[in-house]
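Worked example 2:
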Amino acid sequence: MADVDLAAQEQGHDKFRRLVERAQREAPAATAIAHPCDEAALESAVEASRLKLIEPILVGPRDRIQAAADKSGFDIAAFEIVDAEHSHAAAAKAVELVRAGRAEALMKGSLHTDELMGAVVARDTGLRTARRISHCFVLDVPGHEDALIISDAAVNIAPSLEDKVHIVQNAIDLAHWLGAPEARVAILSAMETVNPKVASTLEAAALCKMADRGQIIGGLLDGPLALDNAISPEAASIKKIVSPVAGRANVLIVPDLEAGNMLAKSLSFLAGADAAGIVLGARVPIILTSRADSLIARLASCAVALLVAAARRRDAAAALL
């Protein structure tokens, strides 16, 4: 890719590099970045802009943003800065830019996730839709053929069955927006049989039946499935599980936030996976990055947001025909 040699920086993460390259075929997404007052947030803005993934609008204390840029050696002269006195105000103003149609994506800078999401979910001034807001990790796992989508590991703590319908639908939509030919969704539990004593197995069975009846669309669902027989053809074969999902899942729906967070971080820290993050279900995609993320993971999060924004552009244009 032009300007930034990601291959030299990150070895073995071909799926994320291909993701960024695919996103570069689209027009950059105008992106409101809330409170980008440290090196990591500004690096994400500068590099994603250089790769033509986003057009940054920096929202926060102007003097602090410029001081952070000068300290880190970043040239932000070409970026619009919307002055806001502190992080709460920055989150609110970034959301205002989206509501005004000036930004088609929202990005977390150097503020707490709760501050940004508080502005997003505000009843009268936020970015709610009829869809439940949920988070998806997109993981590039070394040695695994497909990128894995894991949901929800960051927003919904103990989702109800009704919440999970939205979580599953958001993840299916994301898989298609990222170019997957089919969304093969495994509803995870600790076992692959329905057990009345294990609530997650009952919910998995209900979600699969809901998909059969058209209440969830666009994906192939199976569950309950344990992690091994969701992603390993050998494990599925040993357990004699025959379905188009078992052993081949590219979307993993976890029982709750704790399970998802531990699964995603285990893959990151023990298997060397990089994890891009995106929040769906709001009016625009929301990029949640961390200072601990690698550069390519942060850029991949921007690429995911751009692909979501581009799909929504096409849907909006089609609705006008």
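The longest helix spans residues 295-319. The domain at 1-128 is CATH 3.40.50.10950 (Rossmann fold).
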